[in-house]
Design goal:
It is a single chain. By secondary structure, this protein is mainly alpha-helical. Helix content is 84%, strand content 0%. The chain has two helices and no strands.
Length: 88
């Protein structure tokens, strides 16, 4: 899917994708840590009730600023290409 215009819809799409990616990465990190602890101590310390909301908070805290930054860079690139094409 190629988006030709950098607009508000792209920013919302980026926020959703980046936040979901960060949430999944955070959950996987908690799960890997629980597995390592299990092999070391024999106790599997993974709790969906505690690790889930924490992963959501971390995913939103990392995903939203990352997506806004990507969107701003895309908007600047679009403006630069627009201005360089109008000069020709």
């Amino acid at each position: 899917m190629k988006i030709h215009k950098v607009g508000f819809n792209l920013m919302i799409l980026l926020m959703v994708y980046c936040s979901m990616s960060m949430i999944i990465i955070s959950l996987m990190a908690y799960l890997c840590a629980a597995i390592f602890i299990f092999f070391d101590t024999g106790i599997f310390d993974f709790n969906w009730g505690l690790d889930g909301p924490s992963s959501i908070k971390a995913g939103l805290a990392a995903g939203i600023p990352a997506s806004v930054g990507i969107w701003i860079l895309s908007k600047l690139k679009e403006q630069k290409e627009k201005s360089s094409s109008s000069k020709d």
